[in-house]
Write a structure and sequence with these properties.
The chain has about 400 residues and is an alpha+beta fold. It contains 13 helices and 10 strands. The protein binds the ligand Nc1nc2c(c(=O)[nH]1)N[C@H]1C(S)=C(S)[C@@H](COP(=O)(O)O)O[C@H]1N2 and molybdenum atom. The site of molybdenum atom has 6 residues, from loops. Pfam families: Oxidored_molyb (PF00174).
């Protein structure tokens, strides 16, 4: 037990007004035995586990996309990001039924009188509101985001990132406060637990159904079950989903232009300007690699193209150089991406010209796109036109 400063536990002085009449009759109205500690405790444990996994995997995703200077991600295992991001989205989705059930279970407590027994209790309750508000915000906007419903005015990624810290902070304090009680509750086994067990199994079942009907967006053998998934492996041009089309990015004319050239510039010993025919004449390599989108879907494909390292070595690039890959796309957040040494040295990192046996579809990045192992989809730049070495 944590000993709290006396100031926080001292009962609030002064007379509170009598509770409003509606509140005094409330206890009789919440007769369901499901509004109880036991249900709340088990749902809390499941939610806590989901949030912990979502937080850690979210952090991985953030750091892969915005690596601080002292940190570089390995390019292997090839499917690492696919797994962490799949877990991120699946635990987030599984949390939706859990959170709704938990809120329903505990909502009578919203109306408790007095609202706070002590200053410490007031702070505790305030933190619960922060936790509930933050969790609802995170799950609602998260689901909207993976369904490409950008109805909000703020930038999702930034809001999602900072809200995660608020939630995890409030959650740690909440767990510290509830730990002893929760332990006691789940260790005892009441005789009349059948209804509660049925309720809990129904809620966990609902989470299971949500996951089962979505997880096929990244576990391809289950693709046919994935009726809730907006993107599925196998569906899209060349058997591959498309996130942003060439038309949507305004690159159709530029990408089709026979005058297209790939240039390699910046800190190089020889600047290069390569036509598509010149690239095609270089040694062709094959790599079986997934696109693993931050939104949770992923799909594996067989890519063919030239190794990025072959092109960079032709230009005489230092081994420790960073490379910025730039797209023909003129606007948009994902028109460039950074490739650090572990990724460009990897023999599987390609400037792909073909996928699944055909020249790249316009929507998959024709004439040339980046594909690298263990890398978020947003960093697999399509319609590449320039490599800038730094
Ligand atoms: N230039 C450019 N490249 C891009 C994007 C983009 O918007 N512009 N979207 C990225 C995202 S979010 C994903 S998931 C992958 C999807 O590749 P695909 O459409 O070929 O499946 O492309 C990435 N490459
Ligand atoms: Mo993506």
């Amino acid at each position: 037990m944590v000993r709290r400063p006396a100031l926080l536990t001292r009962p609030l002085r002064g007379r509170l007004p009598e509770p409003p009449a509606a509140l005094t009759t409330l206890p009789e109205r919440f007769t369901s035995r499901l509004h109880d500690e036991r249900v709340a405790a088990w749902l809390g444990i499941a939610l806590g586990a989901c949030f912990l996994v979502a937080f850690c995997t979210g952090l991985v995703s953030h750091l892969m996309q915005n690596p601080p200077n002292w940190m570089t991600w390995p390019s292997r295992p090839v499917n690492l990001y696919r797994v962490t991001q799949g877990l991120h989205v699946m635990t987030g989705l599984a949390a939706v039924p859990l959170l709704l059930a938990k809120l329903w279970t505990v909502y009578p407590r919203l109306l408790q009188w007095p609202p706070a027994r002590s200053a410490g209790h007031a702070v505790e309750r305030l933190l619960v509101f922060v936790l509930v508000g933050g969790s609802l915000f995170q799950l609602v906007t998260g689901v909207m985001n993976i369904d490409y419903w950008y109805a909000f005015r703020f930038f999702f990624t930034t809001a999602h990132y900072w809200t995660a810290y608020i939630i995890i902070g409030a959650l740690l304090i909440h767990v510290a406060n509830e730990w002893a009680k929760t332990r006691r509750t789940v260790m005892t086994r009441p005789a009349d637990g059948l209804r509660r067990r049925t309720f809990l199994l129904t809620v966990f079942g609902a989470s299971g159904v949500v996951v089962a009907t979505t997880v096929g967006e990244t576990v391809s053998p289950l693709a046919r079950l994935a009726v809730l998934a907006p993107r599925r492996p196998g569906i899209g041009p060349q058997g591959l989903p498309v996130n942003k089309s060439a038309a949507g990015s305004g690159v159709t004319a530029l990408a089709r232009d026979p005058g297209w050239r790939l240039t390699v510039t910046g800190r190089v010993r020889r600047e290069l300007t390569l036509s598509l025919a010149q690239l095609q004449a270089m040694p062709m390599r094959t790599a079986r690699l997934p696109i693993a989108c931050v939104e949770g879907w992923s799909a594996e494909a067989t890519w063919q193209g030239v190794r990025l390292r072959d092109v960079l070595r032709m230009a005489g690039v230092d081994d420790d150089a960073d490379v910025r890959v730039e797209s023909l796309e003129r606007y948009g957040l994902y028109r460039t991406s950074e490739v650090r040494p572990p990724h460009w040295h990897d023999p599987l990192t390609l400037l792909a010209l073909r996928v699944n046996g055909e020249p790249l579809d316009l929507d998959h990045g024709y004439p040339c796109r980046l594909i690298a192992p263990n890398r978020p989809g947003v960093m697999q730049t399509k319609w590449v036109e320039r490599l800038v070495v730094r």
